[in-house]
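Chapter review: from sequence to fold.
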Amino acid sequence: MCPIDPESLMKATPMTVMDDRACVNCGYNLKGLRGDGVCPECGRAIRVKKKDIPRYTDALVNAPKMWLAGLAFGSTLLFASVLCVMTLFVVSLALPAGAKFAAAIMQLAAAAIWYIGVLISTQPRPVMPTTQIDPRKEWSGLRRSARITQVFWVLMPTCMAVYWYLYNAAAATVPRGAPPGDGLVWGAIACFAVGAVGLIWLCIYLSNIAFWGDDEIGANFRTCAWLVGAAATLTFLDTLNSMTNAILMGGFWASLVRVMFMFFVLLPAVYLVYCLFRMQRMARWALTNHSIADARNRRLQAQARKNAKRGPAAATSKVSQEGAIALARDSSVNPPDARPVPAPLSGPTGAMPKRTTDGSVYDVEQP
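The token string follows.
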């Protein structure tokens, strides 16, 4: 068997038309033909629509081991970093002003880990023999949007760290210097808004990857994207109402939006942690399954090489010779010239039964 050419695996496999589809030129039924071929009736090229190409023609567990290891590592970084960011954000609310600089530095480190996880997790899907489209081109817009917007999570704690550094430096001088302006705070708020909106694209991208292995996890990420979008909308309304003080017809509706805002900000964050937890478990499971399959294949290959060195195996049965088949002594097949076996003795005296007078060779009893 000749080895598979690696260059052939880098080309997307053309889709086979699986449904009844008429040629746009002559009406010939194109079912069963390749998507890169031509109509056998008129010679017109078969044009397959992008939406008709099946995206998930392979399985996550069949992906290359290195790519699975990267996905498992990247999703684990995302899960751990989002826990750290949320914890540090809650803790920093109760810290005094002098300790908030250190909290901002730790948030910056956690945000950097988050962005590294985003870069690793958004690597293009590997090209496999059963892949119908080129994964290097699919979801390119989502990939770029997620990577660009998620860097603002790193810029947000950077602005706050600079702000609190200047604040502590001004407080340490005698006489006390002027506190820094609110420009850095507004910059951090803007970075938070961009990063939060970018979570929608990141969740959609991760849902596409999750659909490759588990439909339920993919649906969870889609739900998380909707929740993030609702939180972004309520954040915009709450900010607009705080700045204009004239929207939503009074304080009651403003308070209602504020409560909904707090709920929809907390819910997407918790749900995102849940989705990332399941994502990293799925990736590690696929990596473990891939390792088990590789070990099994190595054992089978080693056994095949060992059997090949032994040479052909000995025959397990003897070939029968030509001629009459000898009967065993205990065979129940009688020769054609064998005489009938006498009937067993019967009766209390053990006498032989009488023969019939019609010349039959069989012994029967007289009536």
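Two observations follow directly from the output. The two ends are 80 Å apart (CA to CA). The chain has eight helices and no strands.
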